C-alpha cells in the first residue's frame, strides 16, 4: 500500500522542554494505527504538528505528498480539510446543533449543498446519533459529544481520520461503541490514527502500535 | 449560511445589536438633516444668484440710444444675465405694489420721481464687485444698487462676503459634525464587533482547526457589521426624512418665494433617495473597515 503519512526524524522543543525527540514512522493508506503513551508523552504534539498548529524544530512531515513542514500559512486550511480530526476537547461549535456542526464542516470543504443531507444522514446513522441531530452539544452526554465530534470529522470524507484520545474518560461500553465506529470506517478503506493511553483498548483491537515515552518512540 | 449565522448572532446578543444600530441610526439621522440643511443653503445661494441682483439707476438725461447701447453691452457680457430695462412708470408700479398696504404713499408720488434703471443678474456672485465698478463708470449711470443689501453700493463687498461666509460655515460645520458622528459610529461598531470576536474566540479556533479559511471565519462577522450598518442607516435616514417631510411646509413658508426644497413630490423623493444611497455607501464602508480591523486584530492575537 502507498504511504499516506511520514514523520522523519521530527523534533519539537518548547524552550527547554523537548516534546518530541527524533520521531520517525510511516503510515500506509488504509492502515489503523495506535499511538500510545502516558500523558505528556507527545501524542497530541504529533497531531498539532500534522495540523500545522506549529512547525517542527527539525525533521520532515509528509502527508499525502504534501511537505507539511514547508507549506505556507495560506495553505494550512487546505491541509486541515484533508484530515478528519476528533479532538480531545471535541472543538464542537457550542451554539450550533449537531447537524449545523456537520453542515459547517461541509460548507468549509465546499461540498455541494445537494449532497449535505445524504452525507449527514449517513454519518449520524453510523455514529448512532440520528435522533440527536437537532440538539446542541450542551444537551448531549459525554459519549454522544465524542461521537458527534467523530461525525463532523467523517462527514467531509477525509483521507485520514486522526482521533486524539477519543475514549478519554468514557465508560467501557461507550468506548467500545466508538472503537467499533472507527474500525468500521477503517474497513471501508479510510486510514485511522488513534492516540490513547488506554492499554486495554489497544490490546483489544490488535492493531499496529507506536508507543511514545517522553517524546521518543519506544518500539 | 454566513448571513443566517450573522442574523443568529444578532438575535442572541440583542443589547449589543441595539447599541450598534441605535448609534448608527442617531448618526445618520443627524447626517440626513445636515445634508438637507446644506441642500437648502445651496438653493438659497443659487436663488440669490438667479435674481436681478444689480440695479443700475440711470441719470434723468440718459438718451434712449445710450440706454440701448448699455443694455446690449450688458447682454453681451458673459458675466451678466437676465438684463432688463425698467422705465420710470414700471418703477412707480413696483413702488405701488410694495406699498399696497398704504395706498396713500403711492398716490403722493409721480413717475418723474423714480429714475429709470437697468436690472441684471450675475452668473457668479464673485463677479459682482468688478461689474458694479465698471458700470458705475458709465456716464449715464447715476448710482448702482444691489438687491442683497438694503444700503448703497459701498456695502456690496460685505454682503457678498457675509453670504459666502454663511454658506461655507454651513458646509464646514456640516462636514465636521458628520465626520465626528461617522468616527463615533466607527468606534462603536468596532467595539461591538471586537466583543463579538472575543465571545467567539473558541469558535474561531475550532473553525480554524477544521480547515476554515480566514475568509470563512470573517464572513459572518462582516455580515453582522453590514447588517448593523444597513439597519442603522435606514432607520436614521427614515426618521430624518419623516422629520423633513413634517417640517417642509414650515421651511417653505419661512423662505417665502425662494425655492429651497423641490416643488414636486417625485423630485423630493429622488433627493431623499440620493441621500439614502450616499449614506448607505458611507455606512457600509464604515462597517466593512471597522469589522475587518476588529477581526484581523483578533486573528493576529490568536496566532501569536
List keywords for this structure.
heterodimer; A: 219 residues; alpha/beta; Rossmann fold; 4-stranded antiparallel β-sheet; 34% helix; B: 304 residues; alpha+beta; Alpha-Beta Plaits; 2 domains; 10 helices; 72% helix; 8% strand
Descriptive overview:
Chain A has 219 residues and is an alpha/beta fold. Chain A folds into 2 domains: 1-82 and 159-219, Rossmann fold (3-Layer(aba) Sandwich); 94-157, no CATH class. Chain A is built from 7 helices and 10 strands. In chain A, the strands form 2 sheets. In chain A, strands 6-7-8-3-9-10 form a 6-stranded mixed beta sheet, sandwiched between helices. Chain A has a 4-stranded antiparallel beta sheet with strand order 2-1-4-5, with helices on one face. In chain A, a hairpin with a 2-residue loop joins strand 4 (58-63) and strand 5. Chain A is globular and about 45 Å long. With 304 residues, chain B is α+β, with helices and mostly antiparallel strands. Chain B has 2 domains: 2-47 and 160-303, no CATH class; 52-146, Alpha-Beta Plaits (2-Layer Sandwich), CATH 3.30.70. Helix content of chain B is 72%, strand content 8%. Chain B has 10 helices and 4 strands, in the order H-H-E-H-E-H-H-E-H-E-H-H-H-H. In chain B, strands 2-3-1-4 form a 4-stranded antiparallel beta sheet. The longest helix of chain B is centred in the middle third of the chain and has 44 residues, at 156-199. Mean pLDDT of chain B is 81; it is low at 149-154. At the A-B interface, helix 2 and helix 3 of A face helix 8 of B.
Amino acid at each position: 500500500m502507498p504511504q499516506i503519512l511520514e514523520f522523519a526524524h521530527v523534533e519539537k522543543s518548547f524552550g527547554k522542554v523537548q516534546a518530541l525527540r527524533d520521531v520517525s514512522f510511516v503510515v500506509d493508506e488504509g492502515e489503523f494505527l495506535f499511538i500510545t503513551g502516558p500523558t505528556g508523552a507527545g501524542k497530541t504534539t504529533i497531531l498539532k504538528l500534522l495540523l500545522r498548529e506549529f512547525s517542527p524544530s527539525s525533521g520532515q512531515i509528509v502527508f499525502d505528498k504534501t511537505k507539511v513542514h514547508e507549506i505556507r500559512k495560506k495553505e494550512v486550511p487546505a491541509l486541515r480539510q484533508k484530515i478528519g480530526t476528533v479532538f480531545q476537547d471535541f472543538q464542537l461549535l457550542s451554539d450550533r446543533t449537531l447537524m449545523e456542526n456537520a453542515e459547517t464542516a461541509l460548507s468549509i470543504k465546499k461540498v455541494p449543498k445537494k449532497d449535505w443531507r445524504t452525507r449527514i444522514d449517513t454519518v449520524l446513522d453510523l455514529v448512532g446519533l440520528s435522533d440527536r441531530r437537532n440538539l446542541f452539544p450542551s444537551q448531549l452526554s459525554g459519549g454522544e459529544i465524542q461521537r458527534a465530534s467523530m461525525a463532523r470529522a467523517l462527514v467531509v470524507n477525509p483521507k485520514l481520520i486522526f482521533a486524539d484520545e477519543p475514549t478519554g474518560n468514557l465508560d467501557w461500553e461507550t468506548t467500545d461503541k466508538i472503537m467499533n465506529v472507527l474500525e468500521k470506517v477503517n474497513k471501508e478503506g479510510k486510514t485511522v490514527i488513534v492516540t490513547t493511553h488506554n492499554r486495554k483498548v489497544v490490546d483489544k483491537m490488535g492493531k499496529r502500535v507506536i508507543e511514545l515515552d517522553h517524546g521518543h518512540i519506544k518500539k | 449560511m454566513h448571513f443566517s449565522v450573522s442574523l443568529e448572532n444578532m438575535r442572541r446578543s440583542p443589547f449589543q445589536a441595539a447599541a450598534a444600530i441605535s448609534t448608527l441610526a442617531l448618526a445618520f439621522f443627524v447626517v440626513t438633516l445636515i445634508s438637507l440643511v446644506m441642500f437648502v443653503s445651496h438653493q438659497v445661494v443659487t436663488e440669490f444668484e438667479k435674481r436681478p441682483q444689480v440695479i443700475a439707476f440711470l441719470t434723468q438725461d440718459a438718451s434712449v440710444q445710450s440706454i440701448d447701447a448699455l443694455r446690449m453691452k450688458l447682454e453681451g457680457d458673459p458675466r451678466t444675465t437676465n438684463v432688463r430695462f425698467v422705465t420710470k412708470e414700471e418703477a412707480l408700479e413696483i413702488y405701488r405694489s410694495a406699498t399696497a398696504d398704504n395706498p396713500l404713499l403711492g398716490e403722493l408720488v409721480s413717475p418723474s420721481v423714480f429714475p429709470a434703471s437697468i436690472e441684471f443678474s450675475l452668473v457668479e456672485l464673485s463677479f459682482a464687485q468688478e461689474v458694479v465698478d465698471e458700470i458705475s463708470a458709465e456716464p449715464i449711470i447715476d448710482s448702482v444698487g444691489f438687491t442683497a443689501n438694503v444700503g448703497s453700493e459701498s456695502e456690496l463687498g460685505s454682503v457678498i462676503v457675509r453670504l459666502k461666509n454663511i454658506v461655507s460655515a454651513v458646509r464646514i460645520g456640516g462636514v465636521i459634525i458628520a465626520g465626528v458622528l461617522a468616527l463615533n459610529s466607527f468606534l462603536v461598531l468596532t467595539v461591538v464587533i471586537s466583543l463579538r470576536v472575543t465571545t467567539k474566540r473558541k469558535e474561531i479556533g475550532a473553525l480554524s482547526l477544521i480547515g476554515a479559511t480566514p475568509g470563512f471565519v470573517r464572513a459572518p462577522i462582516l455580515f453582522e457589521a453590514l447588517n448593523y450598518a444597513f439597519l442603522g442607516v435606514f432607520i436614521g435616514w427614515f426618521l430624518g426624512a419623516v422629520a423633513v417631510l413634517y417640517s417642509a411646509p414650515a421651511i417653505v413658508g419661512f423662505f417665502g418665494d425662494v425655492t429651497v426644497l423641490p416643488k414636486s413630490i417625485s423630485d423630493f423623493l429622488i433627493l431623499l433617495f440620493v441621500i439614502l444611497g450616499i449614506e448607505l455607501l458611507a455606512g457600509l464602508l464604515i462597517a466593512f473597515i471597522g469589522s475587518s480591523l476588529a477581526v484581523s486584530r483578533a486573528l493576529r492575537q490568536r496566532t501569536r
